[in-house]
Design goal:
elongated; mainly alpha; about 0% strand
Length: about 375
């Protein structure tokens, strides 16, 4: 290597070292600044949240709180409200919301929600959902309808927080708007609307799309909330719906534990798909109707292990009559699979009798 090349290499290495050091210093400075900002935000938002509490305890009035909140930077204001809003509801939430709804911080979010980029609009919808302000409902509904999906979801969550039941009906009627969500996530979203949304949920069920997860999630929630008034629509869905809808309806009817559904569930034991038969058999153990025993007996000879197992355990939950029939099957039935299922449940019943609440349980 000649002298010129060596000199150029040395200069290059020096520049590289300088850049590396500068980058390291920059990262350290950024980390320091970020940490200080987070500390400042936490301290300031905590202080503002205490002012929210002072309003609700009568230590300051609404005008004083409005002045304090108006002085806070927007990020401090919304951080404080996010921390505080999850811990209040009812009259306290309404009172706090009424005091804060007229601030410039809130007006700015309404403007952001009306148009612009997706992320700021989504954040605006989330912020507005922290306030129980009826004036926000129309703007949030419009954002939910306009989308895209990220905005639709955040607006829907905000509307759920303020119990806007019309939004729930719209979501069930427009399943495509929440297509990215799984069935489990949709169940969580619907539940956020609260049990007082049941009339809207029943109404929306009539137009729900059971080919996708939204309609099925609605059925799941009706079962989780044990809504007795949904029994007849669920029975109709069990008889006439698609495969996934029939499975969901059978599961929900089991949660309702209504003796009036025994006939519909017994009919579902003849379904051509084992998944429906298995859920119907399981559900029949919940209503506690001994007349289901006769329909469950043939299920112990079903080709599906799940059907056999669920039918046997359902019979075990149907009292002495069910246990007596299981003993007959275990002793005399010609099908070894039926005998095996019956013996499994009889053994579990015996263990439960010896050690109530033990590991093996039938109930």
């Amino acid at each position: 290597m000649d002298g010129e090349s060596a000199r150029m290499l040395a200069v290059g290495l020096a520049v590289l070292c300088t850049l590396t050091v500068a980058l390291a210093v920059g990262l350290l400075w950024w980390h320091h600044w970020s940490s200080r900002r987070e500390t400042f935000l936490a301290i300031e938002s905590h202080g503002l949240a205490l002012s929210f509490a002072r309003l609700l305890t009568g230590q300051i009035d609404a005008k004083r709180l409005q002045w304090i909140a108006a002085q806070a930077p927007p990020d401090v204001f919304w951080a404080a409200l996010e921390t505080f809003a999850d811990n209040v509801d009812g009259d306290e939430w309404s009172r706090l919301s009424k005091a804060l709804a007229g601030l410039d911080h809130v007006a700015r979010e309404r403007r952001r929600l009306a148009g612009g980029r997706v992320w700021p609009r989504s954040l605006a919808a989330r912020h507005l959902g922290m306030l129980d302000a009826p004036a926000h409902r129309e703007a949030l509904r419009r954002a939910m309808v306009e989308g895209p999906s990220t905005v639709t979801l955040t607006a829907a969550l905000a509307l759920a927080r303020i119990r806007d039941h019309a939004a729930l009906v719209w979501l069930l009627d427009h399943a495509e708007s929440l297509a990215p969500l799984s069935r489990h996530q949709l169940v969580a979203l619907i539940k956020r609307f609260g049990r007082d949304s049941l009339p809207a949920l029943r109404f929306g069920l009539a137009a729900a799309d059971f080919a996708g997860p939204s309609g099925l999630a609605a059925v799941d929630v009706l079962g989780l909330w044990r809504d007795a008034e949904s029994r007849e629509p669920l029975e109709a869905l069990l008889a006439e719906g698609g495969l996934e809808a029939r499975i969901a309806a059978a599961r929900a009817l089991g949660s309702l534990a209504a003796t009036e559904s025994v006939d519909a569930l017994c009919a579902a034991l003849e379904d051509p798909h084992w998944q429906v038969r298995a859920q119907a058999a399981r559900a029949l153990g919940e209503p506690g109707a001994p007349r289901a025993i006769a329909a469950l007996v043939p299920c112990l000879r079903d080709a599906s292990w799940w059907v056999r197992r669920n039918a046997a355990y359902a019979m075990g939950r149907l009292g002495e009559a069910g246990a007596a029939q299981l003993k007959v099957i275990a002793t005399f039935d010609g099908d070894p699979y039926a005998r095996g299922a019956a013996n499994e449940v009889l053994q579990a019943l015996e263990w439960e009798l010896e050690s109530p609440g033990g590991v093996s349980r039938v109930g």
